[in-house]
Amino acid sequence: MPLIAETCVARHTGDRKEQQDRVALFAHPTETGTLLAVLADGMGGHSGGAMAAEQVTIKAKQNFEAFQPAHETGRHLLQSIVDEAHVVIKLTRFTSEQDPHSTAVVFLMQPGKAAWAHCGDSRLYHFRGREPCFRTQDHSLVGEMLRKGRLDEAGALNHPQRNVLLSCLGSEREPRVEYGETDTLMAGDSFLLCSDGLWSYFSDDELGLVVDNHRPREAAQLLIDLARSRAGGYGDNISLALIKLSDPKSSPRPAFIG
């Protein structure tokens, strides 16, 4: 049965002087029911991070528009976006004075299935109703400490080195990229892509509750407002993309039909 996807993308500069996050959502030019969401959190001094994040979104748009599902897999598309963005960001180091790097989360939805790739500490969440089904694991020092049992979730949120990344695009070392997929999409599923400027202030359960109880635009505004309040004047850039799936019979105002 076809599902309806209602979507929203949003950003806020937070308490920073410059917005270095980038986020975008694209519908495929010819393939019905196929969309791509991409989010990148840039790093690298004044304008350097913005440049790196912009390269991720540009490469995502270019490769997605050329994507032919009959001849290539979703995994191949995702890998090409991340790998090529990494190379482009590295090359910009030779033509500028900045040292650009970026995280990346790329989410591909096709009829009946979804796939994603991520590098760094920007996240993708999959909720079914309000219940968390899946969350990407951060490629960060704190994330590694969590996986090894040296730190709990509460300690991770306040750890002084929580922003230290172990992998990102544009570094000399080859990036660590992880992939995931599901072929079981159903009404009530939601996918949230977000930078650490958002997720740092919420538990998984809190995010699931807000996403489930509100339409995407309302959920995005509420999450940003809460993150800004909890940051206490020290908030990072915020970016998010939200995709909510529903039954066509119960959705009054569809944003995307797939």
Automatic annotation (TrEMBL):
One of its GO terms (molecular function) is protein serine/threonine phosphatase activity. Residues 6-245 form the PPM-type phosphatase domain. PANTHER family: PROTEIN PHOSPHATASE. This is Phosphoprotein phosphatase. It comes from Azoarcus sp. (strain BH72).
